[in-house]
Fold:
Amino acid sequence: MSEILCQWLNQELKVSRTVSPKSFAKAFSTGYLIGEVLHKFELQGDFSEFSESRTSTAKLNNFSRLEPTLHLLGVQFDQNVAQSIITEQPGAATKLLYQLYIALQRKKKSGLTGLEMQTMQPLTNLRLQNMRSEAFREQRLSRRRQNEIMAQIQAAIIQIPKPASNHTLKALEAQKMMKKKKGAEDVANEIKKFEALIKKDLQAKESASKTSVDTTGPMTTDLLNTYSDDDYIKKIQKRLEEDAFAREQREKRRRRLLMDQLIAHEAQEEAYREEQLINRLMRQSQQERRIAVQLMHVRHEKDVLWQNRIFREKQYEERRLKDFQDALDREAALAKQAKIDFEEQILREKEIHEQIAVERAQARYKKHYAVCAEILDQILDLSTKVADYRMLTNNLIPHKMMHDWKELFFNGKPIYEQASIKQIAAKPTEEQLIELEKRDLLDSNDYDDYKNMVGEWALPEEMAENLPPSNNCILGHVLHRLVEKSLPPQVESTEPELLSSSVKGCVLGKTFSGKTTTLKSLQKDFPVKILSIDTLVQEAIQAYHDNEKVSEASSIPQEDRKEDQLTVRAQLGAKSEQLLKKGKSIPDMLLVNIMVNAINGIPVNQNWILDGFPMTLNQAQLLEETLTGCNRYLMEAEGKAAQISTLAVDPTTSKEVPLPSSAFDFVILLDISDNSSLSRMNDVMAEEFSRVISHEDTSEHAAAESQHVDVDPNLRDQIQHRIIGFLDNWPLLEQWFSEPENILIRINAEIDKNSLCQKVKEIFATEIMKKKNKVEKRLEEKEAEKKAASLAEPPPPTPPLPPEPEKEKETHQQRDPSKTPPAKGKPQSETSPGKQESLQDGKGKKGSPKGKPPGGKVQVKKSPVGSTDIPPTPVAPPPPKPGSEEWVYVNEPIPEEIPSFLVPYWELIENSYINTIKTILRHLREDQHEVLKYLYEITTSFQEFLRRPDHKQDFVAQWQADFNSFPDDLWEDEETKAELHQRVNDLRDRLWDICDARKEEAEQERLDIINESWLQDSLGITMNHFFSLMQAELNRFQDTKKLLQDYYRAMERKIPIDDSKRFTRIPLIRLDSKDISENQLRIPLVPRISISPETGVPRPKLKAILKGKIDYSLENVQTNFEADERLVMDTWQQASLAISNMVAAEIHQRLIEEDKENQPAESKEKSPQMSTNKKGKKENEPPKNKKEDKHGKGKSPPVAEAAPVVFTAEEIAEIEKKNELRLRIKEEHLAALQFEEIATQFRLELIKSKALSVLEDLITKVVDIYKLMEKWLGERYLNEMSSVEKLTEVARYHIETATKIQNELYLNQEDFFINGDIKVFPDPPLPKRPPPVEKEEDGTLTIEQLDNLRDQFLDMAPKGKDPSDAVSQVTKQKKMPQKISHYFPMRYNQFLKIWLKKYPWLVYDDLLNLMFCALCRKHGVKSGGSQMSFFYGTDNFRTEFLNAHHLSEAHAKALLMEATSGSPENRASTELMMRTMSKVTLGRVENLFRSCHAIAKTGRPLKDFIWMCKLDDMKGVDIGPVFRTNKSAQIFTYFIAEVERKSLREKLEKSKFFSVISDGITDSLIKEVKLVYVQFAHAGKVHCQIVGAQTIERKDPLAIKNAIEKTLEINLQLRLSSQDWATKLVGFGSDGPPDIEGEKTAVTLLLREIQPCVQTVYCFAHHLELSYKAVFQSIPLYDSVRELLRSIYHFYHTSPLRKSSLIAAFKDLHLRPTIPSRIEGRRWLHGLQTALQNFLKGYPAIIHQLHSEGEERSDTSQQEAKDLLELLLQDSIVKFAHFLVDVVNVLSILSRVSQSRNSSIADISATMESTLKMLQMYQTRPGPKECKVDAVTHFHGSRLRGTENISAVRNVVLTHLIKRLQGCFRDASQDVVRATMIVSFKLWPTRINQEFGEKEVSILTSHYEPVLEAASVKIDEVDTEWSMLKLEIYARFQNIQKLTWDFVNSIYLHKYPNILRLVDLVLTLPASSAEAERGFSQMKRITSHTHAKVTSESITDTLIIQLNSPDINNFDPRKAIHLWNTRMLSSAGDTGPNSDCSSDSESPCESD
Structure:
């Protein structure tokens, strides 16, 4: 109920103070709010008398005034109710307010006022009410009166002296008074103690309740918990307190009893005294006695009543305490349960939030997955489409198709056709809509290419010199003016822009991100207005309820003021309330209106910030549009619409309108996570909850109430939706506030409140300063503009009469070249206007020197005097041309109906032109696809035709069956063999006949394809398309001419010419033979021109197309192409001539009209000229002569003399202005027309060139296809013939060998093979097993005979000695049973013919009975070292010999030589060698080459090749038995390196420039070695590769130069002194050490004799190292620091105990351990830098450890620690170490840049300049590290010793270092080095600078002019290309610093080749010789592995393989094998016995 009342009071009544259920009793205890409620219902008229004070008087006043009103409403109210409300009793105020609410609602329904209710009330009640109120009022007045009477009585008391009493009575009275005082004091003390005890008890109970609430668990629901130890102690304490309290109560009762006794005693004494007094007063009257008795009785009754009241109050108090305790217990239990519920609710909310987050993440994942899947599908479609067209086009896809597919892919359109759009229904499907979008996209791209003349429509080479026509400015101006005239006028606001310095912003963030808190804190420190949308909506609704009206000063009539009197805020509040009552949300527009209304009420210069608004993108857009009056999206759309390509653009109106500034100056986002928002909400709710249950005391309750902030009760239910809404809307808002001006500021709000507020304040202060500076700048600009405008105001102009003749002269000059009509019409159209104009100029402008030239040629004879009287004047600048920027366009008024007609007419022209062009280009694009498909179809069909089945196999099978059917006894018969040979010949002839027939059929099929009409139809359709393009251009020109003619005639007030002529039509080609009359044709048609082959003469281009053998089938194609080309040229000439004729006709028409206008005006012009020329005789004579001439020619001269017409000066000026205007109109019209003529002619020429190229390309493709068909036909015929020959050879072989053909012979078209899977007859049976008994043969003993012979030998041998074990063993073996192979002879005398199939190289000579190797004998390869050789032949027919020779190295060499013998020498390709070589041999050689490459690549010695071969054998890798020696490895390594050398030479030949880099080293194994590198750049990519190493005998410049030239000539066959290579040399890089620095300079001079432009750059890293060592070698302090660092390193690294103690010292000081490091290493500077940094970081720990070391260790260690400590504490050491760190840090950056491979000379130069500046700055002030110790006496708590100043040392070091570094580029041109900055994108400015690089480019081109000219660079175009390339790079790329030149070359190489060649030249310049240093490190590794002296050649080969060749995984050995094999073939003539091809592996086998 209390919540309902609070809602009623706060929201409906809106009382002045917010009421909550917790503060209900306190809020209404004064009665003020009750009076306010009654006042709002107009029932409390005296509400102004109420008081808000909490004093008792104010409360009594308020409730006394409330009583009659409450009684009037029928609410029960009396003193008890008022007392309970005042004392804040629970429920009293709630009950009264509920009754009041019911009564007021009843009163509201009845609609009665307070007076009416009072009159309608019954009289008794009214009387009772009045009586009660009067009684209450009288009671109050009686109390006041009683108090006044008592005061008066006390003041009027007269002290009557009493008679002297005895001492006893006085003593008793004094004692009595003392007792009374003491008792009163005791009672007062007891009361105080009792109150304190009560408070203490209440506090204890409250703390107990808090403790019980706090100790309850979050999830427990049981209210009774077991006691813990703390509870037990508290129980004991409570029992002690209760015992103490009981004792005090007993003491109080005892004392109370004593007091009662004392009081009773005093009462007795008082009664006794009263009795004595009564007795004394007995002598008074009886009446007085009765009165006294009554008074006594009354007093006694009063005492009884008082005691009864006290008792009753005690009972009430006890009851109240009991009820209060029960209520506390209930509330504690409820609070405990509520807390548990609250925590459970928090957990549920977290789970809901996590679930929502998971769902959002899944939705994002699905969305991204769908996008990726769609992209992958499109990539797959693109890949398959490319694969399809690769098959169609033989891997030559047209660039246009690929470009179209990429456009579709990038725009997300499917590449494959989704549906057919040839027939589209009224409601197309979704797939058809997609296809239409694809078609429109491609059409637009094609039209853009056509319009901009790029892509396929780029200018050809013959038109490249002619610049394309620019925009027609005159036509653009005409169209713009017509459009402006046709549109309604727009009224521009003239209000001045008010510059306000107020800051406007908004603070956004999630709920509970701290927006309101920070803004309140900001409002305390800054004068800013905070606007919250929630507050504004409530205020608007309240304004509506309050009936807020506009001011009365408005002039609205009284009767009209109804609803319109409400203010805007009240009206908006009414709308908001209406929507809220319906349960709807307030729309964004209404919210924005409320916010804008509030903003408008803020003063202009006051700052304001929006709190949490806008919340959505729509709100932000509406708010910005309302505040600024501009719609950003609408303006962008208008800008894009304005940028849409039109045919003509007005340059004066095509400027982009900048977007308006944002409505906010800043937007702050308080960024917090979702969990933080939920946590803050839970904390606020928990705080509110704890505040409710804990504040029980009234004082604490009041204090908490004052700090309480209202919390939305629905916040818990809305928090999730608010967070989700913010997450959904924020990305769009972030983009909105970031795009035009990045005004968004992010702040991490997950910090404490004070820090967050401080950050916001700093940001706001910064924005205030920005706005202030911006306003000041704007004011200054305005002032400057005003001053400039005031200074630029010219004096009032005079009438510009002199310029007219100049314009007339220009008109004549422009007219002459544009005249194209026949010669007969020229005099008539030129002379008469010239006369009249010259006459007018001569008479009207007498002082004009420019009036003579236009008509001077015609009027010399007629006006000689006038021509001589004009004095000469200085020549003025030429007049502006029409259409230029200086030209002032003629803007004369035109009739209103003209724009309404011409604007739609132009739109029709433009749309028709664009649609026509798009349609034609679409047809051309589709025709290209059709052509490719047709060509693919005819090629595939022809191939299938060639593969049609034949019947040759049937004849072969029949022949084979007949062949095998011959009897066995006839095979050796010669006649049988002759018969079989004849049958083979017959079979061959029959098969050849089949092949010939098939060939003729194929040729006829090819002729049929050629003679088809497809090609002619395709050419005709394509030509018609291009003729349609010409027609479109012609139509556009004709329509534009008509528009310009109507416009300018309308401006001249002339009637438009009705052009009844038909537009010129270009005839199209008739593709069919139907006869159609000309009347039926809308477009004229012409037949195809056919040229006979005899009359047609082939052109060179056609000869190039049709080159090769004469093919008479293609002659028709050739002749028809010439006819088509001639037809295209004729059509183009016809269109061009038609345009020229139209322009000439227009000019002729203009001249005729001028003649007609000037003839009637001549007579009128004469007299004004005479009247104006009467001022002098010289001036009057020429007009008189002219007038007489006129009279002589005219018919009525006397009339003119008698009555001359006189004109005033104004009329003359008006006539002259009209003439001038007419001339300007004519000039402008003709200029526009001529420009259109030029543009159209250019377009027509481009179309003609494109048509010829397309036709030629189509003819080329078709002819290539026809030739390819012919090639296929011939190859197939030859293959078929070859297969028949193979079949014949096999048959003849079997005939000669008299063997049957068991396997099937298979002849299928062009393939012939012997099918081993099919046998035509079964195998013969196996031979019978020989008998086990050996047959006796002549000259051979059997086994049995041998055994008998042995027995006889044994018998005959001497006895007593056993045979040896070997002999007995042999005997035993002989006696064992042997296999059958044992009985074959050891030497085979029979040659097995099966060996011929197994070994193709084997040849058997029947006559000599020898077998030999055909390959070895053919190539002269002998097998040395064996007793028998396959070169000469052998008769030892054994299989092992054959296998040994087959695997021998000599035979392998012969195989390789045979593999390359099929092609001419030195021209065998790698592929052919790989095909012809055996797969086994090739695999073995590849494995060997790979092993050699791996050995050289890893730097191992070549002797490892042998054991690697053995390892391959163990692993089962087949490498063969040959080429396994160190010599072979050396040869293989040479050829691998030779391949890389050839590749390097090819690259150098392709590149235009190169540089040479050399460096030297001295080693113990080799004398002095020079490594030579070459560096070159091609297409922006830099290559630096080694050439070789060369030893030198002496160190003089000439020897070094000769070594470089020798290295280049030996390894690359490159003669540096030759003209071809000398013109490419641009740079020389060297290390340049000090000892031979002069020699290096001399080498540079020697190289400059070859090429004067050479730039020498020494190795900067080496130079830096030498400079550093030279500077610091003479600094003792530097040596001391190095020695100290080295000592500290050894001190700790030699003793693990010291190292561990140092680490412990770091931990004691709470520092991260940093162990000292050594200063030596591979990277000298890096090691020193690291050692110094570690030393300074670990300085305090080292000092600490050394102190402890000196105290705890032995004497030696202690002395060592003391020495180090002494050095560490020196002031000079510490300061110099810091100085050294600063210097080394700067030098390390320079060293790192110079050693980087990606650094160019520009990067090193820029870094060097920065380094020098830093070092020069260190000369004037200390560095960042040195600043810390510059003027200190203590360092890390340790006092430094010594006062040595290091400033002198600093100066010496810095001066010498700067001096040495400045000489790094001493032999190079400084200007050239600085100019190289253009190639480093890191040095480019972030924004475009028009002058950047121009000076540098000119320096480079002038220095390298001969080199560039030799490289075919057009030097005159370099500057222009640089500017254009720079503009395109800045316009296209955002982050320029990340660009690379190879990427730029890939895009712009075809557009800007000259400047990119210059970039390649600069990139070629060597930056350092760091690559040479890396080469030396590799060479040291090689020499360290090779423990013997090596030659420079072997080092060169190994280094080239290591540094230049690909890695092991990517190495391809085939090129090296091919090169090796080729060189071996060239050296095959060596056939002597000492040939290198002898094989040791063959010898053991053959020696057997």
Notes: Residues 286-393 form the longest helix (108 residues). The chain has a mean pLDDT of 75. DSSP finds 70 helices and 18 strands in the chain.
